[in-house]
Structure prediction request, 397 residues.
Amino acid sequence: MATRLDPNLKKEVKEYGIKDSDKCMQCGLCSAVCPLATTEESFPRKMIRLTQMGLRDKLIASPEPWLCYYCGECSDFCPRGAEPGETMMGLRRYLTAQYDWTGFSKRFYTSEKFEIFSIVGFALLIGLGFLLFAGDSPDMEKARLSTFVDAHVIEYLDLAMAAILSALLLSNVYRMAKFQMGDLIGKVPLSMYLGEVKELIVHFITQKRFSKCHDQRQWFIHLLIMTSYCSVFFMVVVLLSGLGGLLPAFQTDEVRSIIHPYNLIGYYATFGLLYGTTYAMIGRLRKNRPAYKHTHSTDWCFLILLWLTAFTGILINAFRSIGVDGLPLATYVIYVLHLMVAVPMLVFEVPFAKWSHLAFRPVTIVLTNVKKKYHENLKFNPSFAKQVENKSVGTGN
Prediction:
């Protein structure tokens, strides 16, 4: 099949924040200094070349953008100021939009007005929902969330939201896998995929490839934010629910001891989220690292929403705990504001934007390992090659 060239590709990817890739003269220095690039996965140079040549299909099928963590060393050494690290970041936005069958990611990444309108509009809908359906007579003498909103209603809504967002994210992950694997996706034995489950979990939790970059502070900040948020998610959704969902045990009127295990997890998560997001925002204001020199609007949106989610969560707990009865009105108002921030962040970031990258990266690593092992077995394992050949003959392929 002839390779198709798309002369509009270079113009199209610029909508996702790629500005200086035209300066690249393909010297290869960026790939030479990158601690993660290999002969098989040569980036950023290869990705810039595919973009310059308009090789859309090859670009969409490439795993390399997800193997880069943007430490920025390539941009530091680039003799032409082509910002190869930022190009890789822009390509991750572009690929996220290509995987998303709804088209929402594309609108989210290419239109600041659409991004702001979506988040603010959804937040206002949540606030309106509380205004219309919250409890008629909340306790104004003592801060008791159970009198303000029915925990079971919130739980069922949360479970419904979790199911929808999971379905959207997993469908996009599957589309990514089809692009990267091509015809191999159905040929590779299931046992090979299952054999990589451990690697999937390890890379998701530790981001250990990122730790190989020379600037390990960036890995630490990334890991801190990710583990902090995931620990809250695990505690709230997995540990504290009577239905296997969210709030009966989490949205409690009991003020727990400061050394209660749930509170200790909360302290870690709160510190991690506030420290990590504050560090990243200050870095973007100062532009003190290559990864912070160029900031897309969605980067700011993600960091601000995450910071506000953590901060309003602190205020809820503080207002409930002040004195004997807490501050009822302040608690209820902050609770609504908290959900007006947290829910839009989840709805838009998990399946369509930044949080989806946490799924795309480890899955890409697994798929890359599977492809290597599949081809090695074909080459060096005669019995495996015979099985594949018989299966192909049996299915008519």
About this structure: The longest helix spans residues 151-181. Residues 240-248 have pLDDT under 50 and may be disordered. The radius of gyration is 24 Å. The chain has three domains: 9-99, 104-362, 371-395.
